[in-house]
Amino acid sequence: MSAAIIDGKAFAAALRARVAAAVPGFAAATGRVPGLAVVLVGEDPASAVYVKSKGKMTAEAGMAGFEHRLPAETSQADLLALVDRLNADGAVDGILVQLPLPKHIDEAAVIARIDPAKDVDGFTPVNAGRLATGLEAMVPCTPLGCLMLLKDRLGSLAGLDAVVIGRSNIVGKPMAQLLLGESCTVTIAHSRTRDLADVVRRADIVVAAVGRPNMVPGDWLKPGATVIDVGINRVDAGEGKTRLVGDVDFASAAQVAGAITPVPGGVGPMTIAVLLRNTLVAAHRRAGVLLADASL
Ligand SMILES: Nc1nc(=O)c2c([nH]1)NC[C@@H]1CN(c3ccc(C(=O)N[C@@H](CCC(=O)O)C(=O)O)cc3)C=[N+]21
């Protein structure tokens, strides 16, 4: 094993502490604390776990959390009406509608309904367009967390070759935009990419976000590359147990990479920490209050 392990869990805890430290200043200026509304439709057990952990960390940061659990049969009209109410609620600075939604609901229509100023996931077309054109935007939490880890590790990313594996609106595309914004030479690879191993081997930075357990082996990597593993895949561990693995084969990749994020304890905790950071930022922008800590 030669790679440094990038401790996302520790970085995320430090980020949450900086967010929490900024809340009293906001409260003094506005007479209220930042508020995050989380909407969960249906009973998906994995989703319920994330929502619970988000709620706990929202409270720990000194923010107000508003949880809305709706039955799986909720109609699209009722969900849109809830989004409208949250858009109009002055105590709500951030709105997160947990994905995926049940199949009878048009996900794109629900996301597009969220006020872009409260879109702390950065999933609305307005924020995607603002990010792509270099305007001030709410940036999706997972890619922004990955970028924070990369800049902490590497300093300037200018001129580096970056390969993003995966082209989702949630991770791959915004990740590529952020890396482009840092002046990387960016390749977006996906399921139809030819000679993926050769593409990945050119990269100084590899961000794997496909959702396929252990799909990137160490012998695809350029020695010394920085590897960010966004995958969170639950796999069978025998004896009726399961465990989490990433999209990168950690054991072989750690022999070749310069640095690598583990799963769990890498990107996952960053996602929630950045969600709180985005809620704090949205609250300041909406209230017209300057956020004193420029590192946020
Ligand atoms: N609108 C929306 N926004 C999201 O950001 C969103 C979503 N929908 N739907 C579900 C996914 C999933 N997600 C995770 C967040 C943190 C961890 C996390 O903290 N994982 C821990 C391990 C957790 C465990 O042990 O199960 C880790 O990687 O160390 C994982 C997954 C956010 N999501």
From TrEMBL:
Residues 140-286 form the Tetrahydrofolate dehydrogenase/cyclohydrolase NAD(P)-binding domain. It catalyses: (6R)-5,10-methenyltetrahydrofolate + H2O = (6R)-10-formyltetrahydrofolate + H(+); (6R)-5,10-methylene-5,6,7,8-tetrahydrofolate + NADP(+) = (6R)-5,10-methenyltetrahydrofolate + NADPH. GO terms for molecular function: methenyltetrahydrofolate cyclohydrolase activity; methylenetetrahydrofolate dehydrogenase (NADP+) activity. Residues 6-121 form the Tetrahydrofolate dehydrogenase/cyclohydrolase catalytic domain. PROSITE patterns: THF_DHG_CYH_1, THF_DHG_CYH_2. It comes from the Bacteria. Its EC number is 1.5.1.5, 3.5.4.9. NADP(+) binds at G166, R167, S168, I232. Keywords: Amino-acid biosynthesis, Histidine biosynthesis, Hydrolase, Methionine biosynthesis, Multifunctional enzyme, NADP, One-carbon metabolism, Oxidoreductase, Purine biosynthesis. Coiled coil: none annotated. One of its GO terms (cellular component) is cytosol. One of its GO terms (biological process) is L-histidine biosynthetic process. Pathway: One-carbon metabolism; tetrahydrofolate interconversion. Homodimer. HAMAP family: THF_DHG_CYH. Catalyzes the oxidation of 5,10-methylenetetrahydrofolate to 5,10-methenyltetrahydrofolate and then the hydrolysis of 5,10-methenyltetrahydrofolate to 10-formyltetrahydrofolate. Belongs to the tetrahydrofolate dehydrogenase/cyclohydrolase family. PANTHER family: C-1-TETRAHYDROFOLATE SYNTHASE, CYTOPLASMIC, C-1-TETRAHYDROFOLATE SYNTHASE, CYTOPLASMIC-RELATED. This is Bifunctional protein FolD. The gene is folD.
